[in-house]
Amino acid sequence: MVSKNIIAYNKMKTLLLSIIYICCFSISLFGQRDISGIYSAIDGYSGYIEIKDNQFKYYIWQGGSIVYSNDTLAICTFKWADKSFIELNNSVEDPAWEVCRSIKIAQESNPAYGSDSIKIEFIIPHTRGLKITVKACNKHTTLGRFTLDYSMKYSRGLTLPHNNILVIARDDINRISFSIKPENIFPHTIDGAFFGIVDFYMDYIDSYTLPGFQLKENVNDVLIEIPALDNTFFERYYVQGEYARVYGNKIQWRGNVFVKEE
Questions:
Q1: pTM
Q2: What angle do CA 186, 192, 197 make, to 5 degrees?
């Protein structure tokens, strides 16, 4: 008959082995530790990092700037790559796809406009100046490019010229694509660094092989709404597959060192 001492010993042994296993498993997770807190750039002007749970936010104070709409430059998640490095990725999907999916296109034949031209109007919530380039296409061929200095209040549309101005006919145009960029690009920091997006291309909407969107027959009036392209789209920094070094109470990222606040 097994004594009570042996049974107690075996239970204690099992408990100790479980504790050792848990400790070894924790170490195998690259020495992960809680790094939550605020980390300020040591140069005094490159902003600060806020870490909470597995979320990594990067701020650069704009001081009520009329150029940028907010101080939050990047929002991403992180995971430990090894005991000294974390991998950073967007907490949202590719912003360009998000904008593409928000696009709404209305096409109609308007008797107020001629049949030899096409009026194209944009509705975009971005309230600062934009440069829009519209491409008139025929399958894979670009027939002509037209530019618009977009303003929500004063200039929202343009008319593709008819064939006595441009050597193309309205009937030759069966697809439309466009690109959008901010009228001006301003640095985020005093040393001239810009972290945002410089342009947006609407190349594929209803086809993965042909650019732009298909024009319906006899259409001469097109309304394009892009509700997801707001003031933050171009100015925000979208992080994908970057690494930051974590050591002591510091984080080294993009050439800057950030120190944890007490």
A1: 0.71
A2: 50
- Indicate the range of 23-37, 107-121, 208-222 predicted with least confidence: 23-37
Answer with the residue of higher pLDDT: 250 or 160: 250
Residues 231, 128: contact at Cβ < 8 Å?
A: yes
Q: Residue type at 76?
A: C
Task: Quote the CA–CA distance of 27 and 4 in Å, as a whole number.
Answer: 35
Locate 130 and state its tokens: 């934009």
Query: Count of alpha carbons within 13 Å of 208, Cβ hemisphere only?
Result: 0
Which residue carries 């171009």 as its tokens? 234
Alpha-carbon span 116 to 165, nearest angstrom: 11
Q: Which residue has the higher pLDDT, 100 or 39?
A: 39
Burial state string for 24-57 with b = 16 or more CB within 10 A and e = fewer than 16: eeeeeeeeeeebeebbbbeeeebbbbebeeeebb
The residue to which tokens 């002007």 are assigned: 45
Structural class in CATH, domain 95-234:
mainly beta
Average pLDDT, the chain: 79
Q: Quickly state the pLDDT bin for 209 (edges 50, 70, 90).
A: very low
Cα–Cα distance, 132 to 135 (Å, whole number): 10
